[in-house]
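EI: anyone free to look at a 348-residue chain?
SC: sure, send it
EI:
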Amino acid sequence: MKIKHYCPDNSKLAYSVGVTLDRFIKIKQKDFPFASGELSQLLRDIALASKIVNREINRAGLANIVGAFGNTNVQGEEQQKLDVIANIRFTRALTKGGEVCAVVSEEDDEVIDLQNKSGKYVVAIDPLDGSSNIDVNISIGTIFSIYRRVTPIGSPIQPEDIMQPGNQQVAAGYVLYGSSTMLVYTTGHGVNGFTYEPSLGEFFLSHPDMYAPENGKIYSINEGTYRHFEPGLKAYIESCKNKEFSARYIGSLVADFHRNLLKGGVYIYPATDKVPKGKLRLLYEANALAFIAEQAGAKATDGTQRILDIIPSSLHQRTPLYIGSVKMVDEVESLLRKHREPVMENTK
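SC: here you go
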């Protein structure tokens, strides 16, 4: 009997489609010996829900699921129909997966106890960030954080399971629904991006070992509120203009962050006179993106301290956010400090 050894280079007729997300997760499972596969399954559950949400987004205009739902969430923001649909899809997937004991969602006032008594993880999620942009066909996203619960398995959920600082995340990621759909995540061992191939129904590794440029020429901020900025931030914006940097602001956090991560830039959502605590939520927006940013060699602060070191005090706590290329974040922080320092009177 003759045996022929497989040689992938023998044929040029079929190109390699690459490594699937599922296979990549299995390969990386060795990084988490304590998890026994639960974290890997949890990431697969999130990926599955994102595929379903992607389908809903792609047919939104045809299925009459664009526009407002008619309710407001705990933030006082008008819920879109797709907000509600995405929240249901992700919560349902996490419930059926069995690895998660509780969910914190932008769309729910309180913690959702999934009644999974053996669940080892807590997920904080913004199911559909920037959903109002769906009406005008602009990129939107999902943002998620994953924490290990700290109380004994099987016991009731406690505040300490939920109110953990970002430096305790075991994984975080986002899904970008745009010209192509991408899932980007980290488990604390670098950042990898996967692009969805709809004809096969799989995410494939397309952006391995993502790393942000140390510096950039893009600044992303809503300059419509310029008159409410503090002096140090105004000085930074003027510095960007003098250097002829590009102003790029989509109004969809995931899309703005993703672009700057790849090309180099800074995203800013500051505290202002109108929103003195900032607008973005710490638990399910800022923490996740800050973890990804740092794993990709970038930086994230609230203008004063590292985002990942902030101790949360409330479920839907807000925070200012300065995130992106290290040198750009350092510069804006420096100007903020300079202009916040009290002016010393000349007593001579």
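EI: Confidence is low (pLDDT under 50) at residues 344-348.
SC: 👍
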